[in-house]
Specification:
Layout lengths: L2 H16 L4 H7 L4 H9 L18 H11 L9 H10 L7 H11 L19 E2 L5 E10 L6 E9 L5 E7 L4 H15 L7 E4 L8 H9 L3 E4 L9 H11 L11 H17 L11 H5 L3 H18 L17 E2 L11
Parallel strand pairs: 2-5, 5-6
Antiparallel strand pairs: 1-7, 2-3, 3-4
Helix pairs in contact: 7-8
């Protein structure tokens, strides 16, 4: 702070104190520490010398060029910076620390090689469904077994539009072959023609297994994957798991594989056929999947309109109508558009 500015602050504090204000209150008002005020009174110059600047340690441009040249040696482009640094040391080359390498790479804008790092520009999935059988979302969740640290694995696929669970099974392990067999049965049971459906999942090992991808290629199924470490890119599956595990009847653990399968059978039967889903405006997933929901909505809306005409003062200005969106999107919310 400049000397003139300090003098102005000291004079202002002195005026306040001479006007019978307490010193600490005057300093508090202008957000000034009293100890700093005392230092200003003792010495007019700022006694601080500033931070340490190691000008002599700064790399010259030729030294930076040497780092870039070393990283361009054969075999270095496929290595991470730390591995490349250790490899260069074994070759008798030292131009700086790994952090120095990283600063030079960032400064030179070298974003093409593997050692420069890969930009994280993964796009969020853009999936849309205007009816059942267009997009399925699937995932695997762990179910606690009796022995601590052991689990049963629930494989589940849900139709994004109707919210119906179209395939599920509980297995004792995570395996792409089991997922392939499950989807082969589900695609046949639902009568999905080739090239119609997209199956979305996260980046788990079973989801990207060769056996499952081989089935999808054979059946002309489009595979879609969420971004790494982004669970809400598979929100429909995650939401269903939360619904299941949030029920009061969900056990602390399952005593056997058979008991886990029995519980899931009971839950998914209730969910598909009896659960009035709030996301479907309180009809069951099975009803939407079979295309019977519009008849129910028409009856509800006709009864509402009849009562609205008979008692208009009871309904207010906003007209309540039942319906579901004409289009369902993954990740993004949409405005309600009633299906005609």
């Amino acid at each position: 702070m400049k000397r003139d500015r300090r003098h102005q602050i000291i004079e202002a504090v002195d005026i306040a104190v001479s006007s019978r204000a307490r010193l600490f209150k005057a300093c508090e008002t202008i957000q000034l520490c009293p100890r700093r005020l005392r230092r200003w009174r003792k010495a007019e110059e700022d006694g601080r010398k500033g931070g340490y600047h190691a000008e002599g340690q700064r790399l010259s441009e030729p030294e930076k060029d040497a780092i870039v040249a070393a990283l361009d040696l054969p075999g270095m482009a496929e290595l991470s910076l730390k591995v490349a640094h250790a490899t260069l040391l074994d070759l008798g080359i030292y131009n700086g620390s790994p952090s120095t390498y990283a600063r030079v790479v960032a400064e030179r804008g070298l974003r093409t090689n593997a050692w420069a790092g890969k930009p994280r520009n993964a796009k969020r999935p853009e999936l849309r469904a205007t009816g059942p059988g267009q997009v399925w979302c699937w995932d695997i969740t762990w179910l606690d077994a009796p022995l601590k640290g052991t689990y049963f694995y629930l494989y589940m696929a849900i139709d994004m539009y109707s919210r119906k669970v179209v395939a599920w099974e509980v297995f004792a392990k995570e395996d792409g072959t089991l997922a392939r067999d499950l989807f082969a049965q589900a695609l046949e049971a639902e009568g999905i023609p080739a090239g119609q459906i997209t199956v979305h999942a996260d980046n788990g090992k079973p989801m990207r297994s060769k056996s499952l991808r081989g089935l999808f290629e054979l059946m002309s199924v489009t595979a879609s994957y969420g971004r790494p470490h982004t669970s809400n890119d598979n929100a429909f599956a995650e939401s269903l798991f939360a619904t299941m595990k949030g029920r009061v009847s969900f056990p602390e653990y399952f005593g056997s594989l058979q008991s886990a399968r029995e519980y899931c059978m009971e839950f998914f039967t209730w969910y598909n056929c009896f659960h009035l889903h709030s996301g479907l405006d309180f009809v069951t997933p099975h009803t939407v999947h079979e295309g019977q929901h519009q008849e129910i909505f028409d009856r509800r809306n006709a009864l509402l309109e009849k009562n609205r005409v008979a008692h208009p003062s009871r309904h207010g200005g906003r007209q309540r109508t039942y319906g579901i969106p004409a289009e369902v999107r993954l990740k993004h919310r949409t405005s309600m558009t009633v299906v005609a």
